[in-house]
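Quick check before the chapter quiz. The format below is the same one you will see on the exam, so make sure you can read both the input and the output lines.
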Amino acid sequence: MDQQTKAALKQDKFITTTSHGLEWASENRKSVITTTALLLAVILVLVLSVVVYNSRSNAASVAFGDAMQAYQTPIVTPGQAIPPGVKTYDSAIARAKAANAMFLGVADKYGMTPDGKVARYFAGLTYVEAGQNQQAEDTLKKVAGSWNSDLSGLGKLALAALYRNTGRDPQAIALYTELGKKGTTTVPPGLAKLQLASLYQAEGKTAEARDIYAKLKDSDPKGAAGALAAEKLNPAAPHAQPPQ
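Here is the expected output.
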């Protein structure tokens, strides 16, 4: 077969393939247009979702920053000199209530953003400071149930402290024990174990407390938790003096 014949065959094959393709496109034109439109719609929704999420995230960050600023506002005593233009509160309870309302606003409006989720945790803390224990418990339970282990750990630790301070030691013990077995980045196991030992000590269960301190001292001899446990085991031991 000569080159001219081969070229002719290739051209015929190209024409035939192209012709079939055009025929298919013509016959399925409506389907192609519909599919393309659907794909474009999906892409548009995704793009808009990202834009809206980023916008809400930025707004949430600003609102959370304002709430934190209120939470850190100075508390002044009667007669204390206050510089002009400086906002203050006359009690920790008043400050906690003001900050709480702001944190709740962020959590309710931007609950799907990272700042919104953290805001709910601070709403729980400020409920505690304001003496509103039931609201604090309800809020911290939501935080403790978070899929984010670091945030969940903080919620459980705060909830355990609330239980302990309201006379519900068994519930506090259960949470401290859970956190002690599997800690998080925000709540290391050693911290939970120290809290559990402290609770046992307050209940007069000295043996249980010392057992936790001893195991913690041995398992974390160079860490902060191990050092604190060692001090608890031997509180009268003199601190080492630097060489002269």
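If your answer matched, good. Confidence is low (pLDDT under 50) at residues 4-11, 39-53, 240-244.
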